[in-house]
Amino acid sequence: MRELFKQCNACKGCELYRSRTNLVFGVGNEKADIIFVGEAPGEQEDLLAEPFVGRSGKFLDEMLREIGLTREDIYIANIIKCRPPQNRDPKPSEQDACIHWLEKQIEIIDPKVIVCLGRIPATRFIDKDFKVTKQHGELIQKNGRIYMGTFHPAAILRNMNNKILMQGDLAKLKEIKL
Ligand code: URA
């Protein structure tokens, strides 16, 4: 993983490396059974070089705690490794240029479960037309792994009514025999 980090840190596959402060590669347990995949780093992540450390991250930590997990139990990474300016949505071309780094991280960790936080990772890993409101929490077997799409923590912070739905989705992770 160290070698992959070094290569990724030197990547100029799209223009986002120019405006970032830090590469946000991924953190956690490199032997984890579960990987959580987000979209792209925000301001705090860019400053601290770690995914999900801002408001969304605090909320994600709370959701993990509720199912008895900490960051040491899982691995967390984003599709996009460099912060898009003003937190705009990453362009499809930027996703295409970056996703191979995440795919290599997944190969190295070889998790049993991949949890996609929000529409963008779910459309990349589960179904190109994935609708979070309709398909959240479904467990999909594919390529020897189990995939689940759920809400992005930032979306829950905008609409707390959906918190209970995300709690229900994540509770299913406890049922999976790992
Ligand atoms: N949102 C994401 O998708 N990823 C982060 O790392 C932080 C916020």
Structural write-up:
- The protein is an alpha/beta fold and 178 residues long.
- The chain has a single domain, classed as Uracil-DNA glycosylase-like domain (Uracil-DNA Glycosylase, subunit E, 3-Layer(aba) Sandwich), CATH 3.40.470.
- It contains 9 helices and 6 strands.
- A 6-stranded mixed sheet has the order 1-3-2-4-6-5.
- A hairpin with a 2-residue loop joins strand 5 and strand 6.
- The two termini are 23 Å apart.
- The structure holds uracil.
- The site of uracil has 10 residues, from loops.
Question: Could you provide a short overview of the structure?
Answer:
The protein has 178 residues and is α/β, with parallel strands linked by helices.
Key terms:
six-stranded mixed beta sheet, Uracil-DNA Glycosylase, subunit E, alpha/beta, 178 residues, binds uracil, single chain
Name given to the CATH homologous superfamily: Uracil-DNA glycosylase-like domain
Reported by name, the CATH topology is Uracil-DNA Glycosylase, subunit E
Topology as a string of helices (H) and strands (E): HHEEHHEHEHHEEHH
Largest sheet: 6 strands, mixed
Q: How far is it from the N-terminal to the C-terminal residue, by CA?
A: 23 Å
Any idea what the radius of gyration is?
15 Å
The small molecules bound here are:
uracil
